Amino acid sequence: xxxxHKAYRTCVESVIFRYLAVGGxxxxxxxxxxxxxxxxxxLHYLLAGxxxxxxxxxxxxxxxxxxxFANREAANRIxxxxxxxxxxxxxxxxxxxxxxxxxxxTILGLWYVASSVISIGCIAFISFFVYRFxxxxxx
Length: 139
Known about the structure:
Elements: H1 3-13, H2 15-39, H3 45-68, H4 76-107, H5 112-134
Helix pairs in contact: 2-3, 4-5
């Protein structure tokens, strides 16, 4: 196995790489699905935004569970509990995002786009460890 192949395997087998790949892919999916719902399905952009967010949330849960953290637990009770915790974290992340945006933009005077990027980065960092706990097999 050559050095490039070894580096590639190490990267792909990394949980952090898979976490970022799943999150980035689903962000693109969510925006693309929103676009399709508005321009092909002729839905109002707010309804389309809500639908694309819900669909992406379910797909993101499944990919984080089975791909990123390789959690194969299939018992309905466990998966239901994991999904409930996952949704709770998503709701908390939404609130935390608003707090970060307000703090960085209004209090610290940063440009709102920069504030959003920083907020997303902070929440992604925190969420990684919470997801790791949610999908750990020692529950």
